[in-house]
Amino acid sequence: MSDTPAILICSHGSRDPRAVEEFGLVAKALGARLPDSKVASGFLEFARPTITESLEALVADGATEIWALPGMLFAAMHMKTDIPAELDAFGKAHPEVALRFGAELGLDWRMMEAAKDRIETALAAADKTFGKVARKDTLLVVVGRGTSDPDANGNIAKVARMLWDVMGFGWVEAGFSGLAHPTADVVMLRELQRDAFRRVVVFPYFLFTGILVDRIYDWADAVADRYPEVQVVTVPYLKDHPRVIETFMERLQDIARDATGSLDRLAQYRAWKQAGEPLEGEPWMKKLFEHEHGHGGCGCGGHGHHHHEEAHDHEHAEGGCCGGHGHAHDDDHECCGGHGHADDDHECCGGHGHAHEHEHEHAHEHGGCGCGGKH
After folding, report:
1. What are the sequence ranges of the domains in the chain?
2. 6-106+241-275, what's its fold?
3. pLDDT tens for residues 299-321?
4. Closest Cα partner for 230 from 118, 108, 138?
5. β-pairing, 171-176 with 138-144?
6. What angle do CA 70, 74, 80 make, to 5 degrees?
7. How far is CA 8 from the centre of its chain?
8. pTM assigned to the model
9. DSSP 8-state class, residue 303
10. How many whole angstroms separate alpha carbon 192 and alpha carbon 199?
11. Residue 100 to residue 341: CA distance in whole angstroms
């Protein structure tokens, strides 16, 4: 039996083995910084071991106290209800085990440093290969997953604004590749139609790879083909950047400093459950979100429906790169081009598209600046 808490990093899970491997790198990096603690990882679905399986293994290894952390950028449905529900069920079956659940990575200065470093590194490579482009002539597009939770979606806009404030780009926009609008391809095309940027920097604000990240890079390639005079620079996602690992360590310190347990997300979940269904986001946000959808305010003409188990999104990419009428189901599902439905992790992308490696960093340079003297 160990006197130090065991650590469990929880993720949604993916059928993409690359994402599972990358998540393992995070657990490995944390284990290296916590030599006296047993560090494990677990998934909600699509991959093994499950969260419950990892909890059982830690207890079998002698753990009497387990600190769980969500391996997630922001607090959406999985963080707010799904993972706490798994932990709560395990806690009821194992009352002898002390369980604590910490916070998501969130809007932390360390995460902004990681993002800034990823972008700066990609820009330095592009400058060396294709020549420098002034920041004022550059558009930054920060791309998030996109969920049915307005709280999490709003955080992507905050990330974009904070990066713009410190990096000096000509303009910044936030976009999404999942169940939210505007999608990143629409954002890029719209901004290039409005202004003559010489360079577009596309940054997926994701922890790990998967279909949604591949989709972002494919969109960037399609924009580069459509605007050959514009240099399109794709930036690697966050993965196991040292600052990301530092943020995970800080979330563990938050648990250690919270002697009363007042910040314990599992305790909050249990309180919400006792009082009624947990809310997605702040109460006023939920009311506003429901009001907008009830009166067509979402801009989708009544087509957008977001549910917990079966998130169903009708994507109308007017002027977008994929075109057509696609239906995306669940977190990592995709259907681009024509009219189709994608189930599980299958893709049906017609036309332009190819797979990208873990560290995706390239620029497309096809000619002059095309700025028309505006920048």
Report:
1. 6-106+241-275
2. Rossmann fold (3.40.50)
3. 333 333 333 333 333 333 334 45
4. 138
5. parallel
6. 60
7. 20
8. 0.76
9. -
10. 10
11. 40
